[in-house]
Write a sequence for this structure.
C-alpha cells in the first residue's frame, strides 16, 4: 500500500527565493538506498533529471530527519520520490536537502527541526551554515569518485 503526498518548500526573504515541490509516496518495503535502520529511498522521478549531488542531498535531507521518521514507522519503509518540480530561476541546490525534509515533516506529521539561513547580498544567494561542511564533503567525495571511476 502506497500513500502519496505533495509538499512545496519555499524561502523568499528578498526578490530571490528557493522553490522546490516534491511528490513522493511511502510503501512498506526495504528497497532502495538505505537511509537508516528501517528507512529507504528510491528516486523514480523521470520528468526531471537530477545530478548526483542533488540526489545525494535528497538522501542527506532524509538522513537529517530519519530519527524522527523512525519513531513514526513500525516496519521497513521506502520513500519513493515520484516527481520533483523546481523553479530554475529561483534555484539553489540546498533546496533539495531542506525540500525533502520538509516533505517528510508534512507527510509523517512532525515539526521540521530548526535550521539557520540568511540571504547574502554580496553572494546573491541564501547561506545555510549547517550545510557548509556537508556540501564541501559531498562535492569532494563525488569529485574523487568521478575522477577515479572506470567508465
Amino acid at each position: 500500500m502506497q500513500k502519496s503526498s505533495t509538499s512545496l518548500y519555499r524561502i523568499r526573504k528578498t526578490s530571490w527565493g528557493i522553490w522546490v515541490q516534491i511528490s513522493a509516496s511511502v510503501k512498506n518495503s526495504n528497497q532502495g538506498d538505505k537511509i537508516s535502520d528501517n528507512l529507504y529511498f528510491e528516486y523514480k522521478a523521470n520528468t526531471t533529471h537530477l545530478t548526483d549531488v542533488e540526489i545525494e542531498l535528497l538522501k542527506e535531507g532524509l538522513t537529517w530527519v530519519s530519527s524522527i521518521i523512525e519513531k513514526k514507522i513500525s516496519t521497513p519503509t521506502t520513500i519513493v520520490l515520484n516527481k520533483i518540480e523546481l523553479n530554475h530561476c529561483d534555484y539553489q541546490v540546498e533546496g533539495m536537502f531542506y525540500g525533502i525534509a520538509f516533505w517528510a515533516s508534512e507527510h509523517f506529521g512532525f515539526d521540521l527541526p530548526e535550521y539557520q539561513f540568511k540571504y547574502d547580498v554580496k553572494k546573491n544567494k541564501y547561506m545555510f551554515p549547517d550545510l557548509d561542511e556537508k556540501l564541501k564533503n559531498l562535492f569532494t567525495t563525488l569529485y574523487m569518485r568521478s575522477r577515479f571511476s572506470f567508465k
User: Anything to note?
Assistant: The chain has three helices and seven strands. The domain at 3-115 is CATH 3.30.230.10 (Ribosomal Protein S5; domain 2). The longest strand covers residues 17-28.
